Amino acid sequence: MQCGQYCEGCTNYYQCNDCIKKENIRRYEYLYDKTCGTCNDGLFVSFSIVTNKCQGKSNKCKDISDDGRVCKSCKDSSLFINEELATCQKCDTNNGWYISDKYCRRCPYQCLSCKGPNPNDCITCRDRLLKHDDGRCELKCDQDGFYIEGSKCLPCNPELNCQKCNNSISCTKCNSGLFIQSDINNGCDICQDGFFISGNYCKRCKENCYKCKDLNNCEKCADGFFSKNGICTLCPKDLKCKTCSDEITCTSCNSGEYFYSNNTCDTCKEEYQIDGILCKNCKQNCLKCSSKDACSQCTNRYFLKSGNCEACNPSLNCLTCSDQLSCTSCTKDKYINPDGQCDFCREGYFIENQFCKKCSDNCQKCSSVSQCIQCSQGYFLKGNVCKQCTPQMNCLTCINENSCESCEPGKFIQKDGKCDKCEQGYYIENKYCRQCKIGCSICTSYFKCDQCMPQFYKLKTV
């Protein structure tokens, strides 16, 4: 902002913050109206470089107070009293003063000539100011950093950093090195990534372009895209790239993913190990490894021995094994037997997790070690426990202590529940000995007698 004559900094053109130095070291006087100049006749400037005020007792006054601060009348009747400086002077009504009775008083700082002390009493305005119909003088708005809105001259929005603007939200010109951000906020700034310079403007690159020379010439694309003939093209999804250089080559991977030998990205899967930004193969038959030569887990049908993978014993039928003698898991529907191999669970065993566990003694089928379902021959189930059949009953299998369920060959279940040969007067029906009709000594069924007992005879059937 341009300041008035002799100013050392200002709030506007006509109001100085301080005054510049004179040739004799002291500064120009800081006057009552915040301008800088020299004292009137009869006054002198203070030698204080800090205050720089006009002081002393005017010799133009006819009647003046002892301290020199109040001039009551002038020696020369053609002069007027200046109350500010307590002196008498000619009243230059064409240069910022007006006459009020015997006094020469200062116009508002905006007025070059005026009729009174109020801001709307201006008759003419100082340079760079515009006279309004209501008598006010304001900036013409022909300087940088201001714009006209109705009858007001307003400063440009400082947040937009304009050199020139036409309203509070749009710059029309920027300082050197800055450009109008037409696609953001119409303020002035350097062209950021994703924009290119077009005259006085920063224009946005096409979608997914991070750096471009113009709208149709992208030099660097956003992650997940590559430049093809100046246009940003999506990296193929099956490559899983963070960035790529073309349709088949990743140049970087997303967090937690690594390069494979075919220049695609993915998490390191089984049988691979992380080596920097790469996924590399473990050695043959190795499922997990921390380096090519340090295997920590083998693939199925191999076991780990001193960092290497050796084959399980094929005769054990293992899916996995801890050594060549013992399986640790089996294929579907097979389980680890007590001998360490994988097979179906034999009779007298039950399945627990992936193992065949033995049923309790004398139990042929069970669901757990304490839950027998069927007992071995010579035993019967009482509650969940197998009890031995009574030896005197001669049972092959029995229902309880007093009843056989089956007998060894040539013997059958008698009327008393025991197993024995069928005596004369009995016939065989399934596994039982059944008594013939009374008087029959040999029969093949209850209704077919082959031989009668003495004193009995067979009736002839018609």
Automatic annotation (TrEMBL):
InterPro entries according to UniProt: Furin_repeat, Growth_fac_rcpt_cys_sf, TKL_Ser/Thr_kinase
Highest taxon in the source lineage: Eukaryota
Protein name (record): Zinc finger lsd1 subclass family protein
Organism: Tetrahymena thermophila (strain SB210)
